[in-house]
Amino acid sequence: MPDDLHMDPEDFRELGRKLIDFIADYREKIETLPVLSQVQPGEVAAGLPLEPPVEGDSLDNILQDIDRIVMPGLTHWQSPGFFGYYPANSSLPSVLAELLCAGLGVQGMSWVTSPACTELETRVLDWLAGILGLPGSFSSSSPGGGGVIHGTASEAVLAVMVAGRERVRAGGEAAGKELRAYCSSQAHSSVLKAASICGIGSQNLVQVGVRDDLSMDPAMLEVAIENDLGAGRVPFFICATVGTTSTCAMDSVAELGRIARKHELWLHVDAAYAGNACVCPEYREMIEGVELADSFNCNPHKWLLTTFDCSTLWVRDRESFTQALSVTPEYLRTSQGDSGAVIDYRDWQIPLGRRFRSLKLWFVLRWYGVDGLRAFIREQVRLAELFEELVCGSQNFEICAPRRLGLVCFRFRGSDDENRELLDAINAGGEIFLTHTVIPVEGAARYVLRFATGTISTKEKHVLRAWEIIQSLAPSGTIPG
Ligand SMILES: Cc1ncc(COP(=O)(O)O)c(C=O)c1O
Fold first, then answer.
1. Count of CB atoms situated within 10 Å of the CB of 401
2. 270 lines ligand 1 (CB under 6 A)
3. Which of 31, 47, 130, 244 could form a disulfide with 186 if both were Cys (CB 3.0 to 4.6 A apart)?
4. Could you tell which of 154, 295, 350 is best to mutate to test the pocket of ligand 1, judged by most ligand atoms within 8 Å of the CB?
5. In a domain, 184, yes or no
């Protein structure tokens, strides 16, 4: 083996500086890049050799290829003109923590494999539970509760659905019967995926109808549960969505919680995006009743300044949760784990291995402090309010669902095709990026544009400019607002 096969720490020091400079330069110039990647399918792949490199290469050459091949194929999620989907903000303190995580290179599947990885995560999640105003029953200092970081909300809902399934199976009465889970017709597709992966079958996820505000209709849920019971099926799980993906509609956790308690069903709250806003006490109303929930999930990797992946999940009864997910072959056995005195987070998640993800949440909480997080969320909501006002002031556009937090759903007062073409034109321009959804508007399914604030670099001037662009591209002959 050649002596210089690996990068030594001295080279790393120098090359690391280059890479940090590269990232800093990227963030500085991001506003000048087209937000939506303009490449055609296959264009990035065409720039890559078919065969892997036989000999090693230099970082300089790799960075040149990043500029030449990769950069044009990026959609710039951190651009101030990014208003698509929900944000995925990646603050620079969390980027540094990500580097530290890789640099330390620990794998924290069990307490013993890096006690700090476990204990920091537990503490940081207790902090965050308090900052979000979650009930004490979710804290690790309560008799039953605790939090864990998953990669995504999709993993979280799958893990808790498995736990709910095992809890109902443990009762014995479910043997040989169909298990039923419930969410609203507006819930995220990850709930359907979870139902299919966890073995109850996607046909056993009941997608309950919604009220006018697109929240799950509790009366319809009750009927669905009663029908299932009558037909000999076994209801076991409800997923309440606080902040749906399409319109940020909010199910009533309190109403669904009462139904869950009555029928002894596991209630999971998916607050992937909106839950982050609970750092501000004035938004906590949306999770009223959360003390009735068995689990609560939100994604700091969406709106709480923490780079992907960081999805925080809390459970009220960690015993039933870990019993469902724990598998301990001899080679993973440790005396500390056996003693029950420590947390082995491998029992709280689907994969075995785990990164030191709490570092980035810790860096974010320490860098910004609670005040900083609140200021950030409030400013981004203010920017969405500003955009909403601009839309309301125009005769040519209409708001299609109540603005909630940083999301404004609106449309040009014209046909769906005109709105589709408008969105294509907006995104082709490269200065801003928006996405769409289809929702009922006055009884008919309509194509609607979504404008989501939340990217760190977005300022008022970017929102004003976005509105200018949208108006200028709207079908001609219309009156500017
Ligand atoms: C309400 C809701 N739940 C779940 C998800 C899925 O998130 P993840 O990518 O973390 O699985 C999203 C993504 O936008 C979402 O909006």
1. 22
2. yes
3. 244
4. 154
5. yes
Nearest ligand 1 atom to alpha carbon 241: 1
322, 164 Cβ separation under 8 angstroms: no
Judged against a pLDDT cut of 90, whether residue 319 lies above it is answered with yes
Residue 310 is part of a domain; what is its CATH number?
A: 3.40.640.10
Residue 67: burial class (beta carbons within 10 Å; 0-12, 13-18, 19+): exposed
Residue 443 belongs to a domain: no
Residue 297 counted as domain residue: yes
**Model's pTM, two decimal places?**
0.95
162 Cβ closer than 6 Å to some ligand 1 atom: no
The pLDDT, as a whole number, for residue 477 is 54
Which residue's CA lies nearest to atom 14 of ligand 1? 245
Question: 79: Cβ below 6 Å to ligand 1?
Answer: no
Answer yes or no: is 29 within a domain: no
Q: What is the DSSP letter of 264?
A: T
More confident residue, 478 or 456: 456
Residue range 75-126, pLDDT digits in tens:
999 999 999 999 999 999 999 999 999 999 999 999 999 999 999 999 999 9
Mean pLDDT of 274-286: 98
Q: Which atom of ligand 1 is nearest to the CA of 156?
A: 11
Q: How many domains does the chain have?
A: 1
Distance in Å, CA 51 to ligand 1 centroid = 36
Distance CA 295, CA 278 (A): 16
What residue numbers bound the domain in which 248 lies? 106-355
Give the CA dihedral 216, 220, 224, 226, nearest 10 degrees: 130
